[in-house]
Design goal:
- 2 copies of one chain form a homodimer.
- Chain A is an alpha/beta fold.
- The termini of chain A are close together.
- Chains A and B meet through helix 7 of A and helix 7 of B.
Chain lengths: 237, 237
């Protein structure tokens, strides 16, 4: 039981959905349709690789405010050139490709785990993904959120402390009544610094298999769980 | 069919939920529990009566930013004195009484109508009620929202044009791809001025029975519906 916790705030990319395999699967379909032969695992890693640096450029003021859809598109346009496939896609197809992030597939445990926890807790997203992206993803996959919260709402990006503070306020909670659930330690450590409870979800496959998997500070979190069903086991009576 | 519309944005108080009878029902239970004899229809009307003036005081700068929970509580404290029952309630009971707005009951057509429309459209709240209030209400009654949007997110109150503009942006839509659904003409006219489509829901019982009911500008809206099921009939194939 998570004493005093009323709401759970979830990181989404990597924690709830498997962006890497989702992008690879859609990419392989494009290979077939377009007669191209892109290595989509490499493409997915490169795309995701631009995520943090681009958010940091927004937060430093080097770039004006842009939501994640726009940052994804900026990165996509560069990658299409780098992978030498820019001419293979029409503008409408590029838009569809960029929206793959709205169609990311949940890890197998996500919907069963969330559905169980929703009986007892208010479930919110707390993602750097923009509201429309998160809403479309939920509608596409049936993710049972009570509230879609996004760093976009205050035009900042995690791990900016303001994001966690605003989330607790919107949820009508003290920070200590909210538990951040994430697969990424920097996210949890920032949430903890903001006064939230924390739960680490182990996602050793987030970056693909054959990758080293390491937890730096396993004792820093209120809960550590193998997946969302395992978290439900720990925080439900 | 609502051509080009992707998302529906709903006013909540009066449009989706029947605040008046909800407050009366809980009030009658308090009468019994406390041995008091308040006229809760009068109380409900007086409470709701302070809603618009208090939001206007916030928007004019006379009051600092306060969300609806706090405005409701400010009004409640005055009313408890005016109705001479302030001493009958403990602080915890006053908090519970104030939270009646988190437990408002949907009109009978709301959940069936929303559930049908959700198959085709993204359903968002767009209420002056705060996020936590709307989320708790949805959880309490099973209202099937995709996204909880509130004027609180940008610290303003409808009919401020910024609220409609922000809602469309968060939904990833052009204003014309969003239809505002409301029982109140000032809300719809402001949404229309912001470029949204509009649907008027007729709620002749919002203020109780034996009240005159009048629509000022019935030709100003894209749709006029008796209730949310009737709207679904009109905008679904």
């Amino acid at each position: 039981m998570a004493v005093g916790v009323r709401a759970l705030a979830f990181d989404v990319f990597g924690t709830v959905v498997d962006y890497r395999s989702s992008i690879i699967l859609e990419g392989l379909a494009w290979n077939e349709q377009k007669g191209i032969s892109v290595d989509w695992s490499e493409f997915a890693d490169a795309w995701r690789g631009q995520y943090r640096p681009n958010m940091d450029r927004v937060m430093s003021g080097e770039l004006p405010w842009m939501n994640i859809d726009r940052l994804h598109r900026m990165a996509l346009d560069e990658l299409l050139v780098r992978f030498e496939i820019a001419d293979a896609f029409t503008e409408a197809e590029k838009q569809r490709l960029n929206q793959v992030w709205h169609r990311l597939r949940p890890w197998g445990d996500s919907i069963p785990g969330l559905s169980r926890m929703r009986q007892t807790y208010t479930l919110a997203t707390l993602s750097n993904g923009n509201v429309a992206l998160l809403a479309n993803m939920a509608k596409h996959s049936g993710l049972p959120w009570d509230v879609i919260l996004s760093a976009e709402l205050i035009r900042a990006y995690k791990p900016d402390p303001a994001v966690y503070k605003a989330a607790a306020e919107f949820l009508g909670c003290e920070p200590g009544q909210v538990m951040m659930v994430a697969a990424h330690e920097n996210d949890l450590l920032a949430a903890k610094a903001a006064g939230m409870k924390t739960a680490l979800i182990l996602r050793p496959l987030e970056f693909g298999f054959n990758r080293p998997f390491h937890v730096s500070q396993p004792l820093s979190y209120d809960f550590v769980a193998n997946d969302l069903c395992h978290l439900a086991d720990q925080i439900l009576d």
